[in-house]
Amino acid sequence: MMLQTKQRNAILEVLQEAKRPLTRAEILSLTRKKMPRLGSSTVDRAIKKFSETFDLVGVDFPGQPRRYELPAEGEHPHFICRKCNRVYDLEGIMALPPLQAPKGYIVMGGEIIYSGICASCNQ
Ligand SMILES: [Zn+2]
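Above: query sequence and zinc ion SMILES. Below: predicted holo structure tokens.
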């Protein structure tokens, strides 16, 4: 079954509105608020397709389900809330410390992850 434009747009809209990386489960439940009959396999297909075309970027943290966000202008730090487990994008330039990779290693990426309590949990 083809992914319909309406479904595709609704999913991208959800990610735009959220302004933070979302898990598959979050994408499904938030998009269902717009399209109650949206199937979970449709969301899976959309995520796969968007990832292939780089319309979505996977965000992985150890011990966490993979999250997805829209491609950003540049690398940015992330923040994970220790209470609600949501992940947020932080403003600012991400500057990783200079690294001397061990011999034979090819470093292809790095992440800066802050953790703490988010504004909505801190009320
Ligand atoms: Zn929180």
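The chain has a mean pLDDT of 89.
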